[in-house]
Write a structure and sequence with these properties.
The structure is a single chain. The chain is mainly α. 70% of the residues lie in helices and 0% in strands. It has 10 helices and no strands.
């Protein structure tokens, strides 16, 4: 296997421009290009490639960059650019709401602020669209996930987190809460 790797690297070394073009080919997925880089680049070149690709994805707000950044400071920056570029708050809110802060390096206060703000905006958006069931399911799923994670990691309870995001959501809320009920035949009461 090592001989094959040396042969391929040597063969690509002869045509270094070809290999560079291959790594920069946007027709290949980022994951494939990372695979090529990991396989054939020496460590300093690999680090440079990953740094360049990360920076490029952050500037573009390209979610594919999360493969490289995770939900680190750079990942949160990438998600913020994504929101600014697309106006889509749902995707980042769903991403950060499914990953515990302790596992995603969201322990920094500014990252927690983004996390809470995106979740609160998404909850507020669901309220403004009167998607009460979707909002309730979102909150229930987050509570269950947080409860499961708390058993293993011991981070703050969902009640404190939901209280924080509720406060953000109430600040600009124009939609009053409603209670809908219906009988089994789906006729409103």
């Amino acid at each position: 296997a090592n001989a094959a790797k040396n042969y391929a690297a040597g063969d690509l070394g002869v045509s270094h421009r070809f290999f560079d073009r291959l790594l920069m080919d946007k027709g290949l997925s980022l994951l494939d290009r990372i695979g090529l880089a990991v396989t054939f680049l020496p460590r300093p070149s690999l680090d440079e490639f990953i740094q360049k690709e990360s920076e490029s994805r952050i500037i573009e707000g390209n979610l594919e960059g999360l493969l490289l950044t995770g939900l680190s400071r750079e990942g949160i920056e990438l998600l913020q650019v994504y929101i600014e570029r697309t106006g889509d708050i749902q995707t980042p809110a769903l991403i950060v709401s499914r990953i515990p802060p302790i596992q995603s390096d969201l322990t920094n206060e500014s990252r927690i602020m983004f996390y809470n703000e995106w979740v609160a905006c998404y909850r507020k958006l669901l309220n403004s669209w009167q998607m009460w069931e979707a909002r309730a399911q979102f909150d229930v799923d987050r509570a269950e996930l947080t409860s499961q994670q708390a058993k293993f990691s011991g981070f703050k309870s969902f009640d404190k987190e939901i209280e924080s995001t509720d406060k953000l959501a109430r600040e600009d809320s124009v939609v009053q809460p409603h209670l809908f009920s219906h009988c089994l035949c789906n006729a409103p009461l």
